[in-house]
Amino acid sequence: MGLRINDTIPDLTVETDQGSISLHEFVGDNWAILFSHPKDFTPVCTTEFGAVAQLADEWEKRGTKVIGVSVDGVEDHKKWKGDIETVSGATAGFPIIADIGLEVSKAFDMLPAEAYLPDGRTPADSATVRSVFIIGPDKQLKLSMTYPMTVGRNFGEIVRALDALQATSKHGIATPANWVAGEDVIIPPSVSDADAKEKFGEFDAVLPYLRKTKSPV
């Protein structure tokens, strides 16, 4: 059984280009994003890790740590970061896990238990290691998504999803399709009209089960 929403992430101790890290200690009281890729020195992933580096201020505003995962080694990570910084024009200050033994990839259900790295492997051998995991301060998985090798991840969407997760967690609301911070939110059906009015003030009952109110964020 793989890792599912609201499961506690495994407290693995991992090796990174910044030294040994405990995943639970790394998260601490923060939100965290763990993002992975199948191999260093690959074109799409270089642009993606560059995008993460460029968003450093946005992660900090949201009290969120980021950590990468690759099935290559620490020395490759250190060399690859030079390429990432050349492409992005930003410092890649986040750690990258060296998951050579596939412990993280398997624990997070990115690869089957029997997976191994063949000699002379290509990115296709670990293609499903192109996932994003958003983790809450409670160390529980809040969101996950996996992309194919040919499609670059949209980190603007990941920031948007993080905003929504933080808003719903803090204020007990839900968010509609395409929501961005500042737009109207949804009052959960579990909240009665009377309680909704007391908590949120005026709201618009679009349907009996779809009630919108001003964003608390």
Kindly state the percentage of residues in helix: 25-40%
Query: Largest sheet, order of strands side by side?
Result: 5-4-3-6-7
Radius of gyration: 19 Å
Number of helices: 7
What general form does the structure show? elongated
End-to-end Cα distance: 36 Å
SSE order: EEHEHHEHEHEEHEHEE
Q: Note poorly predicted spans.
A: none
Instruction: Characterize the biggest β-sheet.
Output: 5 strands, mixed
How many strand units? 10
What portion of the residues fall into strands of 2 or more residues? Answer: 15-25%
Look at the structure and give the mean pLDDT.
92
Structural class: alpha+beta
Task: Characterize the structure shown.
There is one protein chain. The chain is α+β, with helices and mostly antiparallel strands and 217 residues long. The chain is elongated. The model has no long low-confidence stretch (mean pLDDT 92). A hairpin with a 2-residue loop joins strand 1 and strand 2. The chain contains seven helices and ten strands. It has helices at 23-27, 43-54, 56-61, 74-88, 103-107, 155-171, 193-200, and strands spanning 13-16, 19-22, 31-37, 64-70, 96-98, 131-135, 141-146, 185-187, 204-207, 210-213. The strands form three sheets. A five-stranded mixed β-sheet has the order 5-4-3-6-7. The chain starts with 12 loop residues before the first strand and ends with a strand.
